[in-house]
Amino acid sequence: MKTKINLQREYFSELPTEILSSSEFSVKLFRYPAGVEAVEIKNSRGKIIVLPYMGQIIWRAEFDGIDLTMKNMFSQPRKTHNMLDTYGCFAFHSGLLASGCPSPEDTHQMHGEFCCADMDRAWLEIEEGSITLCGEYEYCQGFGYRYTARPSVQLKAGAGNITIDMNVKNTTSIPMPLQYICHINYAYVDEGEFAANIPDSAFKLRETIPSHIKPTADWFAYTDEIKKMQSQGKTLTKLGNPALYNTEIVFLADDIDEYTDSIEAQITSPQGYTFKTQFSTQQFKHAIRWIMYNGDQQVSSFIIPATSRPEGFLAAQKAGHLIMLEPNETREFSVTTGLK
């Protein structure tokens, strides 16, 4: 049996309110001082904090006492329509008409229009052994496109991972472009080792330099070393020099459906824990590996599922990587991620 609990914005206050409690689960509603509503869902192993009305951003994830979220500059989420103004989350939905880092010629904002969307509805679905937070958002622009997006995140009993889903339907009378990145921002794992069921050589160092990063001479020297390694069939497989990741290092993998139908990728810590992500390469044909370590941001996103490279709309269009949704066509995406 499935039980549905419809949420309303007036249910949220700065004083957390527990609306569900069992031997395995707890659900609390609260509002951050900045005014952003949040849902905390706990099971016996940990918790997630999700922003139900702001793009269904997954703000925090913690399991077995391990914080999975990247180190960042934000003490709380900020009400904004620009992801850079609240870039402190565990995961967000980049897209959907455009995604990634725009080039100077692109007209879309960083990570697209949906990432901080003001959601129309939010509700909980309670089943035997799981709790799912669901949401719905209708995008509509005169003389442009209209779509309905339905993201959700599910936490199961006794699980140390979550399932992140996205459903997008084109409700325009003409074909609509779709770009989507399930942007997961994992905590930096010192001495962490990468592994995946696709070759290491599939991940190629990004050659372009987005406008938001400011490379140093040391960064250029280090990336030249990586390029040399890759020319010899090798690449970065272990995080051992955090000082060299002061400016982000990004690897891109294309056409990953040529290797396998289902990706399994992970990073393992010498402390004994492993972060793992799984997804279908029929849904996501591209992947990103993002590394950064400085005083403000520390991240080792070992794999980020994507429908195209994160280089903006025009680059995806030129490469032939845009998805075109026909009128009334729906696309579904699903990613499972967390502790192994």
Automatic annotation (TrEMBL):
<dbReference type="Pfam" id="PF14486">
    <property type="entry name" value="DUF4432"/>
</dbReference>
<dbReference type="GO" id="GO:0030246">
    <property type="term" value="F:carbohydrate binding"/>
</dbReference>
<dbReference type="GO" id="GO:0003824">
    <property type="term" value="F:catalytic activity"/>
</dbReference>
<dbReference type="InterPro" id="IPR027839">
    <property type="entry name" value="DUF4432"/>
</dbReference>
<protein>
    <submittedName>
        <fullName>Aldose 1-epimerase family protein</fullName>
    </submittedName>
</protein>
<dbReference type="InterPro" id="IPR014718">
    <property type="entry name" value="GH-type_carb-bd"/>
</dbReference>
<dbReference type="InterPro" id="IPR011013">
    <property type="entry name" value="Gal_mutarotase_sf_dom"/>
</dbReference>
<dbReference type="GO" id="GO:0005975">
    <property type="term" value="P:carbohydrate metabolic process"/>
</dbReference>
